[in-house]
Design a protein that fits this description.
With 155 residues, this protein is mostly beta strands. The chain contains three helices and 13 strands, in the order αβββββββαββββαββ. The chain has helices at residues 10-14, 82-85, 133-138; strands at residues 16-19, 26-30, 35-39, 48-52, 58-60, 70-74, 77-78, 96-100, 103-104, 119-123, 127-130, 142-145, 149-152. The strands form four sheets. It has a six-stranded parallel β-sheet. A three-stranded parallel β-sheet has the order 1-3-5. A two-stranded parallel ribbon has the order 7-9. The protein is globular.
Length: 155
């Protein structure tokens, strides 16, 4: 029997990359704590993207988001600005965005830049921030639920 201490492969698993088939139209990632990069560059038909409890997930190849219409995220702590995590400029056709039990530490004013957006739901997200909450709340698309509230955050 080998008596040497284990070298530990945790870091190797944390860096796993997932590459997806080009015909993919819907991607749901659920409870994948070790999943790192998800390459969506070859998914021009991707219309729906959702993930739940994937703390280290990140996306590469944003050209795959051109036709994205639905974005659904739950149980995620955004330690960085959401628009850096998933650049909004690459989602011109986004119509529905839903956050449930998420921590959003930066302003959500990026909603104001989406031309096709029809609804944005924030459910059980605690406090979300905006540089202009009054303007954001006037949008018919914003829905707050589960005790979520919008607070002013000055830049």
């Amino acid at each position: 029997r080998d008596r040497r201490p284990s070298r530990g492969l945790g870091d190797v698993y944390k860096r796993q990359e997932l590459s997806l088939p080009g015909s993919l139209e819907k991607l749901t990632v659920d409870r994948c704590p070790g999943l790192g990069d998800v390459n969506i560059s070859k998914c021009p038909n991707l219309a729906s993207l959702s993930w739940n409890q994937c703390p280290s997930i990140s996306f590469t190849g944003y050209t795959g988001l051109r036709d994205l219409k639905n974005l659904d995220i739950s149980n995620h702590d955004f330690k960085h600005d959401f628009k850096l995590f998933v650049p909004i400029a690459h989602m011109p056709n986004l119509q529905t965005v839903s956050f449930a039990k998420c921590v959003l530490r930066y302003p959500i004013d990026w909603l104001l830049t989406l031309k096709e957006i029809r609804i944005a739901v924030f459910n059980k997200c605690g406090s979300v921030y905006s540089e202009d909450p009054e303007r954001l709340l006037k949008l018919p698309i914003v829905s707050l639920a589960g005790g979520t509230r919008i607070l002013r955050q000055d830049t």
